[in-house]
């Protein structure tokens, strides 16, 4: 018996296993299997964490055969000592995130296969219950895929390793399509009112969400394909509610999204803005100030150069900025006040210090686009009182910008500023003295002066602020000026045509238009202005007739407002004329923007029906060339006529007319204008399926 005890002591020293002493430490049964079993049971009650550690890492230490007595151990001590010796397994140190994982489920380490991805995907689609282990495993697999995409050698230090493009694509596709729904189901967001932080299991998945969102932002930063970027932005829009829970992650996401919003392709821009809007709304008190400031700086930075290709993007940024500023007008007031004040300081310096540098600080696209932004914003929220005090200072800045350098070269800038004033006056229902800025052009510029250069088309002022001296000598300059004056005068007078003071407002403009008609000898210019003058005078007579019927005092503002509303509802001659003209003008602009004439030339041509056997065959191409063919002939047959056979077969004529009609229908079916407006129809990006991938 003594020998057995000694061998066990030697064995315990060799294994360095923990021995739990008992109260009777001097007895011989201290190290027997039964005593050791009781000690471990006591350990399970006193220190369960250490007991679980032993159970996970070395189960052999806890499994003793109680029935095997001392004789069994004494019989083969020398022969089977190596087999009986306890050998502890390797220890594993889990991360802090393992504290929230299930104890009984441990993922398999090693290389990820498509079979494993398919199993995880099925677990994510489980309708009954989503396990935390499944979510953490999928997030770790996504991290392994990101390590493969970002690291040079593709080596992963985590539990999983992604090899091959097919496995990488499968992991990304699984996360994009099925992970948002699984997380929502696991958290039970339907019961918590769609707020993740109020969910019961939020603390368990919090660290894993941070890891996943960080990896997703890294993936967004490394993608160059527009199609893949569109898919990932849709996925980020679904995950935006979780992004807003972490301020640090939200700031990183907004920084990347602002880049996509300002420089991306059209679809990418829209998706990036929707993500910005959703993240900001979920953390509005903490993020709105930062987002407004960053978006304003990004807008000014990217509107420095204006061209027909960049103009749609600038318009989209301006409209989306108006949407963001409308979220909280009390917060927006501070930003808008400071920016308008900054514009006023630049303008004051240019007026006081007459230098080229100061004038260039005002007469540039960044300054003009900033004015356009604030005019659109104040017009959009004019029915609310928060930003109404800023209308007057903005109008003063715009009008003094026109007066800074009132020369012929800056007529395009003048027209841009007048457009802002007309829009702001219409939306805010405020009278602004705009007509003098337009009639001044008619009285100060000599339209009878002969031009030195000939241009085929009028100049386009939409993307120009300043004209070169060579452009002032072209006939296209005068044509463009007359067209813009006609359009702006008609628009402004139509907006004011229902007011009770319309005859008095337009009196000076009518006198100056008559002077212009007397002095100008160019029939094309006088024709347009005479038509405008007749419509203004007709509307003035209409208002005077209606004014003679009223019986209330001119100081009764409520009655005047009601009268003007009734006149506007009834309709005025000038407003009716303007609406008809506007429809035609809008169609012409759309054709010009979409280049319908060029597209129509590339339309597929319809084959002519085959002639019957009794029909007369077409003549051979032996005659001379006809320089001016008839309009009914097709472009392909301009050179297929004979001198002595001028009348084609009647059936061929019908086929040609039919073809022309079909071509016109096809031309009308071409989309004419991109729709950059964003309507709030709920979560429009959530409908995301496998077909989108």
UniProtKB/TrEMBL annotation:
Residue spans of biased composition, Acidic residues class: 67-82, 94-104, 630-647
* UniProt cross-references to InterPro entries, sorted A to Z: ARM-type_fold, Noc2
- Name any one Pfam family assigned in the record: Noc2
| A Gene Ontology biological process term | ribosomal large subunit biogenesis
Molecular functions per Gene Ontology: histone binding; transcription corepressor activity
Q: What is its main location?
A: nucleus
What GO cellular component entries does it have? Answer: Noc1p-Noc2p complex; Noc2p-Noc3p complex; nucleolus; nucleoplasm
What name has this protein been given in UniProt? Nucleolar complex protein 2 homolog
- What does the UniProt keyword field contain? Nucleus
Residue ranges of the region described as Disordered:
1-45, 61-106, 610-693
User: Where, per UniProt, does this protein localize?
Assistant: Nucleus
Q: Where is the composition biased (Basic residues)?
A: 651-662
The UniProt entry's sequence similarity note says: Belongs to the NOC2 family.
Annotated Basic and acidic residues bias = 33-45, 663-684
């Amino acid at each position: 018996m003594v020998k057995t005890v000694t061998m066990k002591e030697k064995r315990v020293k060799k294994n360095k296993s923990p021995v739990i002493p008992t109260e009777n430490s001097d007895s011989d049964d201290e190290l027997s299997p039964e005593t050791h079993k009781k000690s471990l049971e006591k350990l399970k009650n006193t220190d369960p964490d250490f007991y679980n550690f032993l159970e996970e890492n070395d189960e052999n230490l806890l499994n003793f055969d109680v029935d095997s007595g001392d004789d069994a151990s004494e019989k083969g001590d020398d022969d089977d000592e190596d087999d009986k010796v306890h050998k502890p397994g390797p220890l594993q140190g889990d991360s802090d995130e393992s504290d929230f994982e299930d104890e009984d489920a441990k993922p398999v380490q090693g290389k990820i296969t498509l079979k494993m991805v398919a199993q995880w995907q099925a677990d994510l689609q489980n309708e009954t219950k989503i396990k935390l282990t499944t979510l953490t495993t999928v997030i770790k697999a996504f991290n392994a895929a990101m390590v493969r995409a970002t690291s040079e050698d593709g080596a992963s230090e985590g539990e999983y390793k992604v090899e091959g493009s097919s496995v990488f694509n499968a992991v990304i596709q699984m996360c994009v399509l099925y992970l948002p729904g699984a997380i929502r189901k696991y958290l039970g967001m339907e019961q918590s009112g769609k707020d993740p932080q109020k969910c019961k299991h939020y603390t368990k998945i919090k660290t894993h969400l941070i890891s996943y969102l960080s990896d997703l932002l890294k993936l967004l930063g490394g993608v160059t394909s527009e199609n893949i970027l569109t898919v990932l932005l849709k996925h980020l829009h679904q995950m935006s509610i979780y992004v807003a829970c972490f301020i640090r992650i939200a700031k990183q996401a907004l920084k990347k999204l602002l880049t996509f919003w300002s420089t991306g392709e059209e679809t990418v821009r829209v998706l990036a803005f929707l993500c910005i809007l959703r993240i900001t709304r979920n953390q509005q008190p903490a993020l709105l100030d930062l987002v407004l400031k960053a978006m304003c700086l990004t807008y000014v930075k990217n509107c420095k150069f204006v061209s027909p290709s960049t103009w749609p993007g600038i318009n989209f940024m301006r409209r989306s900025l108006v949407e963001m500023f409308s979220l909280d007008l009390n917060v927006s007031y501070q930003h808008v006040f400071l920016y308008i004040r900054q514009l006023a300081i630049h303008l004051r310096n240019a007026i006081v210090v007459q230098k080229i540098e100061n004038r260039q600080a005002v007469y540039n696209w960044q300054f003009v686009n900033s004015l356009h932004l604030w005019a659109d914003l104040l017009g959009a929220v004019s029915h609310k009182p928060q930003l109404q005090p800023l209308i007057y200072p903005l109008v003063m800045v715009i009008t003094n910008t026109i007066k800074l350098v009132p020369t012929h070269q800056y007529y395009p800038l003048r027209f841009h500023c007048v457009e802002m004033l007309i829009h702001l006056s219409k939306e805010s229902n405020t009278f602004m003295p705009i007509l003098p800025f337009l009639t001044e052009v008619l009285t100060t510029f000599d339209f009878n002066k002969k031009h030195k250069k000939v241009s085929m088309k009028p100049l386009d002022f939409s993307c120009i602020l300043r004209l070169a001296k060579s452009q002032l000598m072209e006939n296209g300059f005068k044509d463009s000026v007359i067209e813009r004056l006609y359009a702006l005068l008609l628009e402004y007078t139509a907006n004011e045509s229902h007011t009770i003071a319309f005859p008095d407002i337009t009196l000076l403009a009518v006198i100056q238009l008559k002077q212009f008609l007397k002095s100008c000898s160019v029939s094309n210019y006088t024709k347009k202005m005479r038509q405008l003058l007749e419509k203004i005078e007709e509307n003035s007579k209409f208002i005077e007739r209606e004014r003679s019927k009223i019986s209330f005092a001119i100081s009764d503002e409520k009655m005047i407002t009601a009268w003007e509303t009734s006149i506007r509802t009834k309709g005025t001659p000038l407003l009716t004329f303007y609406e008809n003209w506007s429809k035609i003008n809008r169609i012409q602009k759309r054709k010009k923007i979409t280049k319908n004439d060029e597209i129509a030339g590339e339309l597929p041509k319809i084959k002519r029906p085959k002639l019957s056997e009794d029909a007369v065959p077409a003549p051979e191409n032996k005659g001379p060339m006809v320089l001016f063919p008839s309009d009914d002939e097709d472009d392909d047959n301009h050179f297929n006529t004979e001198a002595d056979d001028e009348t084609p077969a009647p059936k061929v004529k019908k086929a040609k007319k039919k073809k022309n009609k079909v071509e016109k229908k096809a031309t009308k079916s071409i989309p004419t204008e991109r729709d950059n407006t964003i309507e709030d129809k709920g979560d429009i990006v959530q409908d995301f399926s496998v077909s989108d991938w």
